[in-house]
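Hi Q.,

Before the meeting this afternoon, I wanted you to have the adenosine-5'-triphosphate prediction in hand. No need to reply - just skim if you have a minute. The sequence and ligand are here:
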Amino acid sequence: MKRRIVTGLDIGTTKICALIAEVSEEDNIEIVGIGLAPSNGLRKGIVVDIDKTTHAIKSAIQKAERMAGQKVDSAYVGIAGAHIKSINSHGVVAVTGEEKEIKESDINRVLDAAKIIPVSSEEDILHVLPREFIIDGSPGIQDPLGMSGIRLEVETHIIKGVSTSIQNLVKSVLRAGLSVEEVVLEPLASSQAVLSEDEKELGVVLVDIGGGTTDVIVFHEGSIAHTSVLPVGGNHVSNDIAVGLRTPVSEAEKIKIMHGSVISERVDDNDKIEVLSASGRERKMLSRKMLSQVIEPRMGEIFSLVKKELDKVGPRDLTPAGMVLTGGASLLEDSEELASNITELPVRVGEPDYVSGLSNIIDNPVYIKKGDTVPRAIFSTAVGLVEYGINNSDAKTSSAGKKNSKEVVSNFFSKLKDWFSEFF
Ligand SMILES: Nc1ncnc2c1ncn2[C@@H]1O[C@H](COP(=O)(O)OP(=O)(O)OP(=O)(O)O)[C@@H](O)[C@H]1O
Ligand SMILES: [Mg+2]
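Predicted structure with the ligand bound:
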């Protein structure tokens, strides 16, 4: 049986995650490898040190390859950073051919027409995402191929980024020995792993709060209405804690994960936590409420910025399915409630499907909170990249073969436990 390999590479500010999937001719998907490596060559989602990034990519890929028992030569690579901008654009063409039946070439021409937008010489277009097609004035068409018409229009969502930032990301991957199948906007990938089709149809906003960026993507009537990457995330919370509680950043990171909470009035006045002093020599007792009082304004700022993005899209009733949070920093206690208070939307935390029990075996203790399991929410982008790759690779022939997140990850997480015990 012929199988093809699809690799997702999430190059985050705090961790790099490589995921290798095997896809059979019948489109059965099996995740066969995962590799994680700490990332320290990025700032706010942007590559600032190619050597360090290359090194970390190599390490993550090698771990994934060892698990998979095979080498990979290309990957779908995630991108974020505040340089990413999005714009909605319209294209229109006359349908060619005597039959007036819409062909692939007509669809490509209308998408090209929509691409004629202001792009500075420093920018490149990353995605042209069709929101709907309009045939002879009739809107709401998702797949116009084979339909009859004279005038074909398209509404698109176009995502562009600064060329040098894209190139530095691509360079890091190439130097690690892989070619790049496609550079994919991270929230677009995460949305594939975390959101249901029903939520996208109703209208929903996904917020991926990572270490260096908070990525926002809004769906309305099944299509992308807005995307944005905000240059703030969990690392800023840790830095605030380091300054506020006078402790090293590495200690602040641990305290945040172990004891952090985002609604300070919920925290008992008598709750105490032990904190390393800035010198790193002695430990002091501080109130947990104080910790929460440092975290709350920064997380509040993040949700206020998200609210501003939503205000750009339109009235709040455009997203009746509410807000879905994912990414590592979404796991802080009570973050759903703070997000809901600020944005006035119902909020849930979203993650790819999961088999529990990884906390004893994952190698990075910083990600382990009390006796909890390893957070699934940090895998949303990597799982989404694999799904994006499977659904968009040339070998895929029909949209009927599309896999949803549940099918991909049920397999992934059921295997993960064995892999982690073997390799971490
Ligand atoms: N259990 C937890 N509770 C609170 N915060 C957590 C938890 N686990 C991870 N984090 C925080 O989540 C952040 C990392 O999240 P994630 O792995 O999604 O980011 P990333 O993908 O590396 O970064 P980015 O997407 O911003 O480039 C860090 O700030 C970390 O402190
Ligand atoms: Mg991320």
